Every structure is written in C-alpha cells, then in structure tokens.
Amino acid sequence: MSNHRYHQGGNYMHPRMSYPHHFTYVSSCVKYMIFLLNFLFWLFGGLLLAIGVYAFMDKLKDGNGWVRFDTVYDVIFNISLVMIIAGVVIFSVSFAGCLGALRENTCLLKFYSMCLLMFFILEMTLAIICFVFPQYMNSFLEYQFTDKIIHSYRDDSDLQNFIDFAQQEFKCCGLSNAGYQDWSKNEYFNCSSPSVEKCGVPYSCCINATDISSGLVNIMCGYGVQEQSVAAASKRIWTSGCIEIVRVWVERNLYVIAGVALGIALLQLFVIYLAKTLEGQIDLQKSRWS
To answer: Which cysteines form disulfides (predicted)?
Structure first.
C-alpha cells in the first residue's frame, strides 16, 4: 500500500504532513532550563543596576551634582559606576537569553551564546595570567593601583568603605610591600599635612579599633604610627600591604578557589551547550515547516 495519503475528493497530501500536529523538535526541557537560569540572572542584574544607580545618585547629591571622570581610574575606582556597568551587561545578556529561549529566536540565542563565550575566554585568560605569572600580577597591581587608590581614599566614600572593609577583613594596611607606609602618599596622612591625621593611617588598619566596653570605633587609633618602626607600629596596627596578604590567602585556599572557578567555567560551558542545542532544534523545526 502506498504511504501517500489522499483527502476526500482525491486531493494529494505530502508525506511530511503525516506528522502529528503537536510534534516539535524543540525540547521543552532545554528551552525552559535556559529561560529559568537567565531569568534568575536577569533579576540579579536588575538588582545590581538598581543599587548602583541609587548609590551613584546619592554620590551626585553629596558632590553637588558633580562626579570626576578625568581618567579611566576614576571609572574603575567608582564602585557605584562599576555596579551600574556590570548590572547593565548582566541584565542585557540574560534578557537576550530569556527572550531568545522563550520566543525561540535564533538571533538572540546566537548573541547570548557569543557573549557567554567571550566572558569565558576573558575569565580563562585572566586566570592563566594570575596562576602562571603571580609575581608579575603583584608588581602590576602595586605599580598601577597603589598610588591611585591611596590618593583617592577620601575622595570617594564608596571606595573608602571598600578599602576599610578590605583592610579589616584581611588584617592589612596599605597595598604595596611598603605596607602602612603607603599612607604617606595620601594628602591627609602625609607627615607634612596640617591635618591632625598627619603621619597616621586609617582606623581600619588598627588591631583593636573598637572599644570592647563601649562598642565605639576609635578613629584616632592609627595616629602617628608612620613615625614609628615596624616593630613598634605592629603593636597597634597591621603593617603588611594588602596585595601580598591577599596573594598568600589565595595560595592557602588555592584548591577551593580553583574548584569554584572550575565549577563556574563548567556551568558556563553547559549553558553555552544548551543554547547551541536549542538553536539547532529551532533550525530543524524551521526546516520542517519549510
């Protein structure tokens, strides 16, 4: 018997049309897995963007509607602006993934998978440089960022809070191998400064900055320590630079960090694989319709 089918009246029907009407090459599992993952990142990107905009507007208010953008470092060290840029990127890319999967749009899916691939390559390049050339990275960070960060400590409240948090968390002071002496490069802590803070360091360098009985922070605990020797200063403050302390911390936790980095890399590759798989399924479905 012939596989060709006829409607009543003898009209010929193509064999392709014998597929069930509900049949599709597009896997609902793949489609909605991509959508769900990207929906979560879309929410995270939106939250990051909202927080960044709020912090930036607050900074504009404090600065009388003016924020400095003279050099690229003014952008890098402006934490609220970095949050805005990161939020926009995450929001846009994840939105393309959401919409591309939901609407089965191959153009959006290609854009999404290409962005993920670029992020993956950049991350791998940075990881290789950090692990293969750690001393070079140390020198680069010290040379490029120490002076800029120390100089900008009081110019940006967000940066100041970030530095204070890092110094307290890692029990360090300053950035480079000079340690606490880095703060002599700041106009407020320089020994030639007319400020009461001259020859001092921020309170976040202090070993015991908080009074246990009162719970109050002694912001004067680091005054005058630049005039003391390392041995004498070490009784009051942390004396080592943060870059070296962070490097030692990374070496001690290398396997954990490598495991987390590998997990993130595999997740990115898996999502790229899902996106490319969905693209292929959509193309197959389109070819069936054509």
So the answer is: 173-191
